[in-house]
Design a protein that fits this description.
By secondary structure, the chain is of the alpha+beta class. It has helices at 14-31, 47-54, 80-89, 133-149, 163-172, 179-187, 194-203, 208-218, 224-232, 240-258, 304-307, 322-332, 354-365, 380-389, 400-404, 423-429, and strands at residues 37-38, 44-46, 64-66, 72-75, 98-102, 105-107, 119-128, 156-162, 222-223, 265-267, 281-287, 296-300, 315-321, 342-348, 371-373, 392-398, 407-412, 418-422. Strand 3 (64-66) and strand 4 form a beta hairpin. It starts with 13 loop residues before the first helix and ends with a helix.
Amino acid sequence: MKFQSLKGFRDFYPEEMAARRKVLDKIFCTVRPYGFREVDSPSLEMLELFRVKSGEEILTQTFNFTDKGNRDVTLIPELTPTVARMVVERSRSLKRPIKWFSMPKMWRYEEPQSGRLREFYQLNVDIFGVPGPEADAEVLAVGIDIMLKLGLEGEFIFKISDRRLMQGVLESMGIADKREAVFAAIDKRYKITHSEFKELLSKAGLDDIQIGRLLSILDSRGPILEALQKLRALLSLENEQTRSGFESLEKLADLLVMYRMEQYCELDPSVIRGLAYYTGTVFECYDTKGELRAIFGGGRYDKIIELFGGDSIPAVGFGMGDAVLEILMRRAGVWPEEKISTDYFILTTSPQYMETALFLAQALREKQLVVETDLLGRNFGNQMKYANSIGTKTLLILGEKEMAGGQVSIKDMTTGAQKTEEVIRFLDSVKNK
């Protein structure tokens, strides 16, 4: 019987994992300097935790089951409910702001597509306890910085809006009661034709004048500083929701200028985010060619902690899945080469030299170097073949002549240059990695 991985799940062999590790390390090394602290959490949670946020619909989207204790549980499809639970459990002792990140494995029972899998990793970055756009700007800066550090300059754009802005627009137009239908139509805008979009708005109950005004606001998208000036003239700022959303976006834009990251951001009022719990700033990151699904998604969700039984704590954050990111990096030619490498391979011409080989190996490993020795008793030629197959940078040879003089031959596998040194002198010359 032949076994293979399930549909929507992935295996990562050493060469593939080596490339992924380089990407993950760059991501983590970008997030940490901003003061975000890494957390971890269970892969299995009570199903009710996700029902609270998403309702019964979650049953069709998750790997859920009844466990041996007759409890309804699920593999986590996202991290926000889990993080909210963690904050609620220790809310009194946690120092504000709470700045956390993690990149756990998650599961969603969906039809696998390009960039969407049933098992995936997702980076989550959150700030709890800051009500103003200062936190919004910080998480956006982290997201932009990640993309830049991964070599994706010119390959991405962050599209930003504010839920309050569009809610206020609908209120001022007297169609607040049609909000769900209008937002659903806006969410589909770039997936359908212009005439189909207008037809959806008409079915939602908007007349031609209302449709025209809404389109003019939605079409004000563009570089954030310029677009905000254009948008101001189209808005009725007497509406409290509209004014709050617009002023917050203005402050956010000013902060992005201070971070020197405004050029990577566009204002796009059509960014609504389908999740009901977003309360203010919302944003999504897309590839500039518009060929892929969103790479990032996030925003402000100030009600989330209350939803899970805690006190009112403002929150903002984002999630970034690994699948779309990998597709973009490969397309841009910046995905790391999938190969393994070894700092030193110690070649021995006789089993009696193994003690010295292991002494050398352990001494080098203490310097955080990757070192292998021959474990199969192979001859000289086969050891050389193996050393090449594992990407050996430097070959250390222990033969009869070397052992007689307490020496080791050192061969640079790139240039072919070779020299002989005393073992102790060689070890003293090797620096920690």
